Amino acid sequence: MRTQVGIVGAGPAGLLLSQLLHRDGIDSVVLESRSRAYVEGRIRAGVIEHGAAQTLIEAGAGARMQREGMIHQGFEIAFAGARHRIDLHGLTGRDIWVYGQHEVVKDLIAARLEMGGQILFEAEAGAIEGIEGDRPAIRFGADDKDQVLDCDFVAGCDGFHGIARPAIPASRLSVFERDYPFAWLGILADAKPASHELVYARHDRGFALFSMRSPEITRLYVQCPPDDDINEWSDARIWDELHVRLEQGTGFRVKEGPILQKGITGMRSFVAAPMRFGRLFLAGDAAHIVPPTGAKGMNLAIADIRVLARALVTFYREGRTDLLDAYSETCLKRVWLAQRFSWWMTSMLHRFPGNDPFQEKVQDAELDFVTRFEEGARSLAENYVGLPYDRV
Length: 392
What we know:
The chain has 392 residues and is an alpha+beta fold. The protein has helices at 12-23, 36-41, 50-58, 63-68, 88-92, 101-114, 235-247, 297-318, 322-325, 327-349, 357-372, 374-385, and strands spanning 5-8, 28-31, 47-48, 70-72, 75-79, 82-86, 96-98, 118-120, 124-129, 137-142, 145-150, 153-156, 174-189, 199-201, 208-212, 218-224, 259-273, 276-277, 280-282, 288-289. It starts with a strand and ends in a 7-residue tail after the last helix.
């Protein structure tokens, strides 16, 4: 099998790359180890930056998001018994969308298949070869047969645990990482959202977040130890913590409903550099992980793909390699800005085990700065809605 760009992974990054390349006449094949049903059912992030939303629309995969997604012009921060609104639109002139990542994946798959795109589900990539030459290949298994996908370039969009990043020699890769001493216990609840905007809360008992996935489904999180057993968290205990941490006597009331899904997710920061080695390009979680506090995971993947798609189109149209050569450096500038913001949001809102009174007072001062001073609120808002593509 032969194509121009071989793509490993049918998440938002791989699917969007295939979609953008197709619109410029460049062939690609997407290999995905899981079934279509599994990929479309994975519940992930739901906050989409202004620029990322525009990219999906421009790619021809944003129509349902525009119909069913929720535009948010701000969010709230609750602490010390009060709620404070960050006016995203007023401070930046831009908004965010709340629309589940699994819905984005559904839309991209539908768009690719409608255009005749090749997505091979249950096709497990086992090795990426020849990336230091001009004819790389991906070995994969499908239909109980070993197969080979020959291509000009390989895009590794297969997540943190995929095969793409390990295909780069360890001696040529630098890794930067940090594990956080807490996790998020997240639930999906069959309950209408009690607020039309997100609420981030800092409380003596830990962080909490009120969010939503639709006008009928609420998404909520509480901070917990990373080694907690989900079986120790009864539904009643989860709701008790959410009421205490989010409401804080402000009049806001969390609406309860049947819990449809719950799980505990550890938090980490991770960056692998460079994001390009020979003819292999890493994108999304294959290259970087951010703590979810800043809502940057999928948005960073989309930003990577914008850069990579433009570089590949320029190569095929004009024979230029300068944008391909600059891919890693260009992406890493945004990645590290997003890491800084995500680390800062996480540090400001969570309770760290062993924090001394000085550190807690600094957290209080950070919250005071972003909620009482326009300069602080503006910096938070600009980063939250997404730094403009043309400035990073």
